[in-house]
Structure formats: C-alpha cells, structure tokens
Amino acid sequence: MIKPFSEWYNSEMPKTCKKKPKKAKKEFLTQKQQTFLDEYVKDHRERDAAIRAGYKRGSARNTALKLLSTPHIAAKLKAMEGELQTRNNITKDYFIEKCKDIIEGSDSKNSDKIGGLTLLARITGHIKEKQTDTKQVVILQQKGLEEDEPPSVDITP
C-alpha cells in the first residue's frame, strides 16, 4: 500500500531535511527609524525627515518611502499621529467648525472663503481626489475654425 506524501514525509524523512517553521520576526524600530518617525510627524515631509534622521541625502526620499510602506513602521506612525490628535483634541469636527468660521466670517477675504469651502468639501467627502503616480495630461482641442465664430477650447482630462 502506498502511503500519502504527508505520512511518508513525517515518518521517513530524516529530521535534518524537514523544513523548520520560520520564526516570527521581531518588529522593533531602530533608533534611526524612530528618529525618522519623530521628524516625519512634525511636518510630513518624507525627504526632509529622512535627512534630519541621518539618512543619506541622495537616497533620502526612496528610503523614506520604503520606511513608510513597511507595515510595522506605518502602524507606529498611525499610533503616534492618533496620540498627537488625542493630546491636542484635534478632530474632524474641529476642522469643520474652523472652516465654517472662515467661510461665514465677515472679516474673511473671498479667497479665504473659497479655500475654506474647498477644504470643508474635502473633509466632508464632497470632493474626492484620486492619487496617481503619473502626471495628468490635459488635452486642449481648438474648435470653431469658421471665420464667423471665435475659437473655443475644450479641456479633456
């Protein structure tokens, strides 16, 4: 009778051939990584935070992006930012109130009101932005080539 592979593997293979389960890698931060996070939380500028943390200037941006995409570092950053928001009592409601104050304020300039309204729309989800890795190309087409009518421009994203 032929044994199933799992029985044969477990019984007849020498112990040295069996694969050992990988140990869970301890996910701790080095001093340099912690310094990077401390600096990044200050101004959210990846490259500058990496340079201030002591990483090489030439590869600072790539290093910062790699660090921020590492799961345990991203989790630590999220925890640090949550702690900062809690400590400073900064919530979504806080931003909404401040934006409303700017929009409805009689001493605010029109440009400030428009900016406040735009920010309020983003916070509340009325404006959604797509993040892309590539630059968006805008194609301009000239229409109305007849002599009687002026040319118009069609902007197609």
Question: What is the CA-based Rg, rounded?
Answer: 28 Å
* SSE-based structural type: mainly alpha
| Amount of beta strand | 5-15%
CATH uppermost class of the domain at 26-89: Mainly Alpha
The helix/strand series, from N terminus to C terminus, equals HHHHHHHEE
Q: What is the architecture of the domain at 26-89 at the second tier of CATH?
A: Orthogonal Bundle
**Number of helices, where a helix is a run of at least 4 consecutive DSSP H or I residues:** 7
This entry's quaternary arrangement is single chain
Q: Output the CATH topology of the domain at 26-89.
A: Arc Repressor Mutant, subunit A
Shape: elongated
Helical amount among residues, as a percent range?
40-55%
Q: Report how far the terminal alpha carbons are from each other.
A: 68 Å
SS elements, strand count: 2
